[in-house]
Amino acid sequence: MRKIISILMLLSILLQPISSAEEVSVEDGLTRVGNSYIIQGIQEFKRNDLPTWLQLTDIGFRFQTDGAPIYSIETIQPIGVPSDQITNFTQFRLGNDLSAGTVANFVLGRRILSADKTSMYTVNTFYDHGFKYGHGRVGGGLEYANGRNKYQANMYYTVSGEKMVDPSNAIYERALSGYDYSVGTTFAYAPWAQVYIKGYSWDYNNSIDDVDFKIYTQLQVTPRLNIEFGYLDDNGGEHYGKILYSLGHKGPAMIEKGKKIFRSEDGKTIFATTSLEKVQRKNDIYVE
Predict the structure, then answer these.
(1) pLDDT digit string, tens, across residues 124-143
(2) What CA–CA distance (Å, rounded) separates 173 from 39?
(3) 243: Cβ–Cβ under 8 A, 6 or more apart, which residues?
(4) Fewer CB near the last or first residue (10 Å), C or N of the chain?
C-alpha cells in the first residue's frame, strides 16, 4: 500500500500543471517522494510502528578500560505462536571479539512458565563461530527465574581443534571449553535495576585453568536505552561499560511517562526475565 501511495504521489507531482512560478523536474519529484519516505519512517519510529521482529532487536556498544570498543547487533524471535506457558525462540547475535574477530552466535531455546505463574524455566542450546580463524564452539544452558531472582548456568565445548594463526612462526591456537554460572536479582522498588554476580572457568592445556568472576548491574534507563556496567576479574581485572539500544520498547524503565522512578508494580509479579528476553551468556570465544 505504501508503494502505491508513493507512486501516486510521484505521478501527481510530475503531472501537475507547470506554471511560470514553479517548474518541477523529475529529479525534484523523486526528491519529494524520498523525503516523504524519510518523514514517514521517522514518524513510524516515534510511534513504535516498526515490525515486531525489528522491535526485538538490540544494538550494543561495550567500552573497556583498555579503550577497545566491542559492537554487536542481537535479536530474539519466537518460533511459531507462543502459548500462555511455552515460548520457543531463536536468538542470533553478530559482534566483534578482541581475540576471535567477528563472531556469530546462534541460540535455540524454550521457556516454560509454571502453572502458578510464579516461576519460569529456560533451556537452550547454542553454536558460536569465529570467522577470523574458524573457531567453533557448541554448548547449552539452563535458566530459572522465580519472582525477582534469576539463576543461570552454561556449558561450552570447543569443536574446532587447533587453528594456525601465524604460519611464519608455526603458532596455533584453539578455542577453550568451560562453563559459567550467575545469580541475579531485580530490586523491589526499582524494577528497572538488576544486579548480577557471575563466575567463569576455562580449560587450558598449557597453563592452569582460568577462574574469573564478574559483578555488574543493568539499568533500563528508558524503554529503549539499557546501560550495563561492572567489573570483570579477567587477566588482571578491568572495569567496563555497555550500552544497549533497543529498536522496540522494553520495561519497566527508570524513566517512563506517568510513573515514578522508585515504585512498586502495584502488586504485579515482577519476573527477573520475560518470555522473549535474550539469553545471557559468554558470547566471546576464549582461546589459548
Answers:
(1) 999 999 999 999 999 999 99
(2) 50
(3) 60, 61, 62, 225, 226, 227, 228
(4) N
- Convert the pLDDT of each residue in 180-204 to its tens digit: 999 999 998 999 999 999 999 999 8
Calpha distance 288→174 (Å, rounded): 6
Sole residue written with cell 524454550: 110
**Do residue 199 and residue 238 come from a single domain?**
yes
The one-letter code for the residue type at 165 is: V
Taking alpha carbons only, the member of 275, 279, 273, 288 closest to residue 126 is: 279
C-alpha cell of residue 109:
531455546
Distance of CA 105 to the CA centre of its chain: 11
Q: Which of 167, 240, 168, 164 is nearest to 198 (CA)?
A: 240
Q: Are both 11 and 72 inside the same structural domain?
A: no
Same domain, 119 and 236: yes
Residue 54 carries which side chain, given as an amino acid letter?
A: L
Distance CA 117, CA 278 (A): 20
Q: Which residue do the cell numbers 546501560 mark? A: 227
